[in-house]
Specification:
Elements: E1 10-16, E2 22-29, E3 34-36, E4 57-66, E5 76-86, E6 102-104, E7 107-109, E8 111-115, E9 120-130, E10 136-144, E11 147-155, E12 161-162, E13 171-172, E14 186-187, H1 190-208, H2 212-215, E15 221-223, E16 229-231, E17 236-237, E18 266-270, H3 279-292, E19 299-303, E20 306-310
Parallel strand pairs: 3-11, 13-17
Antiparallel strand pairs: 1-2, 4-9, 5-7, 5-10, 6-9, 8-9, 10-11, 12-14, 15-16, 18-20, 19-20
Length: 316
């Protein structure tokens, strides 16, 4: 599944006098609001596989000014970022400022690009902005000569699909105080949702067809996080990704606990009360996934009390 990388450039238009007084007239963007994918650190050693996911976003300030005679540098420009709100998280602790993304450099002198006989000149300041890991809405501010303007920036993964929008016989579990019900079951595409629906149907048929004596070895029901009984033949789907993707911190401390689950390409299937982990049933489930995955890239990996389906076929 090919990941899209969005490159956006901001322009700041400024008029200046020979004394370098600055008035910022307006701010425009190729994409309004500015929208980028969350930054992704890759602690499992796969950064080289998707380099576009860890590259900074190019942000430029372009200054337009009127000068007479030799161009006069209007001074320096600076960039900063503020947090408006995060999406998918219900933490009691605020997102630290150090995790809002960074500009490098955050400030610098304006450089002359071009001067015209009319006296108008173009100055610029360019910087690299490293995206936040946490999805949400951020506010970029550019300052020149004591004047400033702002631009809202959305940090999100586009095209995510909520499994709760599908009428399927699965059980969606995994809500917590940090990530409310309905926020943790987003997948990368409708095709993944359809595959999960097929896997759910086939798993139910597989379990129902087992000999009664074999099924009797297991409890008839499991419990979800609210204590509700769930029939044993029901696929219990735990964490996928959050509403806008990005960092999924189970403990709510803004640090990775789910190292993956950031872009809709990871799905956890519960095994404690769900799919038995013994060889026969595990092999049957793996075979169903392999047959239903249209790209034959899904990998099923055991992780404690659940199976982790990686729809790209490798851990990110």
């Amino acid at each position: 599944m090919k990941k899209a990388f969005l490159l956006s450039i901001c322009w700041f238009f400024v008029t200046i006098s020979t004394s370098a007084d600055v008035e910022i007239l307006h701010i425009a963007s190729l994409d309004v609001p500015l929208e980028v994918k969350p930054h992704l650190t890759s602690p499992r050693g796969h950064a080289s596989a998707e380099p576009e996911r860890i590259q900074p976003v190019d942000v430029g300030i372009y200054v337009v000014g009127n000068v007479t005679g030799s161009p006069t540098n209007p001074g320096s420009a600076s960039m900063s970022v503020d947090l408006i709100n995060v999406v998918g998280h219900s933490h009691t602790n605020a997102l630290p400022k150090s995790k809002w993304g960074t500009f490098n450099p955050a400030s610098g002198p304006l450089q002359l690009i071009q001067q015209y006989p009319s006296g108008r000149a173009y100055f610029s300041f360019e910087t690299k902005y490293t995206r936040p890991e946490v999805a949400g809405v951020y506010e970029i501010t550019g300052k020149v000569g004591g004047k400033s303007l702002t631009l809202d920036m959305r940090v999100k993964v586009y095209g995510l699909v909520n499994l709760r929008d599908y009428n399927a016989s699965w059980e969606l579990i995994g809500k917590t105080a940090k990530h409310k019900q309905g926020t943790n079951h987003y997948v990368a595409s409708a095709s993944i949702a359809q595959v999960l629906m097929s896997i759910t149907t086939r798993w139910r048929a597989y379990w129902d067809a087992l000999p009664a004596a074999e099924k009797a070895e297991y409890p008839k029901t499991a419990k979800d996080e609210d204590g509700n009984l769930v029939p044993r033949n029901t696929l219990m789907i735990n964490d996928c990704s959050l509403e806008w993707g990005g960092l999924f911190d189970i403990e709510g401390q803004w640090i990775p606990s789910h190292y993956t689950h950031r872009d809709g390409n990871d799905t956890d299937i519960r095994t404690n009360g769900g799919i038995p982990m013994n060889g026969t049933h595990r092999e049957a489930f793996d075979a169903i996934v392999d047959e239903e995955d249209p790209n034959s890239t899904a990998a099923v990996n055991p992780e404690g009390n659940h199976l982790h389906i990686d729809w790209d076929g490798w851990f990110r």
